[in-house]
């Protein structure tokens, strides 16, 4: 049965792979994006998730065109890497506002329709960095680690309404962001990964789609690492 799916930050990289995976399964897929030209084949809604009013307007458009959101994938995120001594308050606050508070905004708004329907699937995209830590990424790691506590609290709060809330924590993924690294940097990263390669965005998408499926109906509050073994033990 075709469901109404929303993927935030679904215009490129991991988000786009997730959106495509749901579309290929026959779901109606909306994506949010902040800038540029969105990919074709989806209901693309321009939305900055740091703005509560834009989030509200995005949901109204999605609900009007494809129905209340039944599956939410909170993927939109930013980085502003800097060593702590050089990190400004703005560097820290802006990353938290997008990655953590922005996720709060989109999940809270989706929750309205899910509670009414007494069912729903929420998947938050965290990162291995949120579990392992990473020098120069204290703001990003804090925001991604925060998603775990957020998800597990909601799993307890919403479970009786048949709403599951889970986290996928990708490792290093072959996207435009990682392709911008030097060959030396890429080789250094791969040496840390037991499977000795980068993930493909489609591998992250497969785990997300599983968590949103009927087969995963009894999984909630889980953190699923898709990281080639990089963060094992966390």
From TrEMBL:
<feature type="domain" description="Ketoreductase">
    <location>
        <begin position="3"/>
        <end position="176"/>
    </location>
</feature>
<keyword id="KW-0560">Oxidoreductase</keyword>
<dbReference type="GO" id="GO:0051287">
    <property type="term" value="F:NAD binding"/>
</dbReference>
<dbReference type="InterPro" id="IPR002347">
    <property type="entry name" value="SDR_fam"/>
</dbReference>
<dbReference type="InterPro" id="IPR020904">
    <property type="entry name" value="Sc_DH/Rdtase_CS"/>
</dbReference>
<protein>
    <recommendedName>
        <fullName>3-oxoacyl-[acyl-carrier-protein] reductase</fullName>
        <ecNumber>1.1.1.100</ecNumber>
    </recommendedName>
</protein>
<keyword id="KW-0275">Fatty acid biosynthesis</keyword>
<feature type="binding site">
    <location>
        <begin position="9"/>
        <end position="12"/>
    </location>
    <ligand>
        <name>NADP(+)</name>
    </ligand>
</feature>
<comment type="pathway">
    <text>Lipid metabolism; fatty acid biosynthesis.</text>
</comment>
<dbReference type="InterPro" id="IPR057326">
    <property type="entry name" value="KR_dom"/>
</dbReference>
<feature type="active site" description="Proton acceptor">
    <location>
        <position position="140"/>
    </location>
</feature>
<comment type="similarity">
    <text>Belongs to the short-chain dehydrogenases/reductases (SDR) family.</text>
</comment>
<dbReference type="Pfam" id="PF13561">
    <property type="entry name" value="adh_short_C2"/>
</dbReference>
<comment type="subunit">
    <text>Homotetramer.</text>
</comment>
<dbReference type="GO" id="GO:0004316">
    <property type="term" value="F:3-oxoacyl-[acyl-carrier-protein] reductase (NADPH) activity"/>
</dbReference>
<feature type="binding site">
    <location>
        <position position="75"/>
    </location>
    <ligand>
        <name>NADP(+)</name>
    </ligand>
</feature>
<feature type="binding site">
    <location>
        <begin position="140"/>
        <end position="144"/>
    </location>
    <ligand>
        <name>NADP(+)</name>
    </ligand>
</feature>
<keyword id="KW-0443">Lipid metabolism</keyword>
<comment type="function">
    <text>Catalyzes the NADPH-dependent reduction of beta-ketoacyl-ACP substrates to beta-hydroxyacyl-ACP products, the first reductive step in the elongation cycle of fatty acid biosynthesis.</text>
</comment>
<dbReference type="InterPro" id="IPR036291">
    <property type="entry name" value="NAD(P)-bd_dom_sf"/>
</dbReference>
<keyword id="KW-0444">Lipid biosynthesis</keyword>
<dbReference type="InterPro" id="IPR050259">
    <property type="entry name" value="SDR"/>
</dbReference>
<keyword id="KW-0276">Fatty acid metabolism</keyword>
<keyword id="KW-0521">NADP</keyword>
<dbReference type="GO" id="GO:0006633">
    <property type="term" value="P:fatty acid biosynthetic process"/>
</dbReference>
<dbReference type="InterPro" id="IPR011284">
    <property type="entry name" value="3oxo_ACP_reduc"/>
</dbReference>
């Amino acid at each position: 049965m075709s469901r109404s799916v929303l993927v935030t930050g679904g215009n490129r990289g991991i988000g786009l792979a997730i959106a495509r995976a749901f579309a290929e399964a026959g779901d109606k897929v909306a994506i949010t994006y902040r800038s540029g030209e969105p990919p074709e084949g989806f209901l693309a809604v321009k939305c900055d998730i740091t703005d509560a009013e834009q989030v509200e307007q995005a949901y109204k458009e999605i609900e009007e065109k494809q129905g209340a959101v039944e599956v939410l994938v909170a993927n939109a995120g930013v980085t502003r890497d800097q060593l702590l001594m050089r990190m400004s308050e703005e560097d820290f606050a802006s990353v938290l506002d997008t990655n953590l508070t922005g996720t709060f905004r989109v999940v809270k708004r989706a929750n309205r329709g899910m509670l009414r329907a007494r069912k729903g699937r929420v998947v938050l995209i965290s990162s291995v960095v949120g579990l392992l830590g990473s020098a120069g990424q204290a703001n990003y790691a804090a925001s991604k680690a925060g998603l775990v506590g957020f998800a597990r609290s909601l799993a307890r709060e919403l479970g009786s309404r048949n709403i599951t809330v889970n986290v996928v924590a990708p490792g290093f993924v072959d996207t435009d962001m990682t392709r911008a690294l030097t060959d030396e940097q890429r080789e250094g990263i791969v040496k840390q990964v037991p499977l000795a390669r980068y993930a493909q965005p489609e591998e992250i998408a497969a785990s997300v789609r599983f968590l949103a499926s009927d087969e995963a109906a009894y999984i909630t509050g889980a953190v699923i690492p898709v990281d080639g073994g990089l963060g094992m033990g966390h």
